[in-house]
Amino acid sequence: MDNLPRLTIVYAQRLHRRIERDAALREQLESRARLLESCQLPEFVEIWKESNVLTTHALGINSGGWFIYLLPIAYVMAIWDGIQRLVRSVNVIPEEELTTLQACPA
Question: Helices (DSSP H) in the chain: which residue ranges?
Answer without folding.
Answer: 9-21, 23-38, 42-63, 67-92, 95-100
